[in-house]
Amino acid sequence: MSNAVTAIEEEPKDSIDLTRVLEKAHSSTTVPGSSTACIIAITNQGIQAINLGDSGFIVIRDGCTLCRSPVQQHDFNFSYQLQSGNSSDLPNAAQVFKVPVASGDVIVAGTDGLFDNLYNNDITAVVVHATRAGLEPQVTAQKIAALARQRAQDKNRPTPFSTAAQDAGYRYYGGKLDDITVVVSYVTAFGNS
């Protein structure tokens, strides 16, 4: 992602091409390993996002899910991933989104550790409570991550991961321990001014 930051800084401020950013970031990466990717830019037209794999984002408006990036996977629990070299998915497999946003909207981005353990309505409930309580975005992100971790450790509660596992023919119940990263942004003002 540090390569993505460098690529974004090279883009014209008024027309960031996230596909080009992801391609540059991928081609500049030489360290071993693989990763999903989710890049979101807030522009005067709303948000632009590019997502590859099972990390992603959700946009919440007035307590409802406005948009949610779908999971990209080859098969159950086998998500699209980028890695240096020739044996990975390519940046052009990523999905690109343009979503109009308004003041009061909340954008939640996260890794699969978030989306495997919390349903959209779980995330939305935390966001609604946090915004009503006047909590800052970072505190909201910490609360969402804490709930995801709690659900990841719960062997008795259905989760998006357990539902997907059962749909794929596996006997699985409860959460999935995994990395959990959450970033929350509040849209506070919007327009061309």
Secondary-structure blueprint:
Blueprint: H1 2-9, H2 18-28, E1 34-35, E2 37-43, E3 46-52, E4 56-61, E5 64-68, E6 73-75, E7 78-79, E8 82-83, E9 95-99, E10 106-110, H3 112-115, H4 120-132, H5 137-153, H6 160-167, E11 182-186
Antiparallel strand pairs: 1-8, 2-3, 3-9, 4-5, 4-10, 6-7, 10-11
Helix pairs in contact: 1-2, 4-5
InterPro entries: PPM-type-like_dom_sf (IPR036457), PPM-type_phosphatase-like_dom (IPR001932), PPTC7 (IPR039123)
Catalytic activity: O-phospho-L-seryl-[protein] + H2O = L-seryl-[protein] + phosphate; O-phospho-L-threonyl-[protein] + H2O = L-threonyl-[protein] + phosphate
Organism: Aegilops tauschii subsp. strangulata
Task: Give an account of the 3D structure.
The relative contact order is 0.16. The chain has one domain: Phosphatase 2c, domain 1 (4-Layer Sandwich), CATH 3.60.40.10. Strand 2 and strand 3 (46-52) form a beta hairpin. It is 32% helix and 25% strand. The protein has a four-stranded antiparallel sheet. A three-stranded antiparallel sheet has the order 2-3-9, covered by helices on one side. A two-stranded antiparallel sheet has the order 1-8. The chain is α+β, with helices and mostly antiparallel strands and 193 residues long. Helix 1 (2-9) packs across helix 2 and helix 4 (120-132) runs antiparallel to helix 5 (137-153).
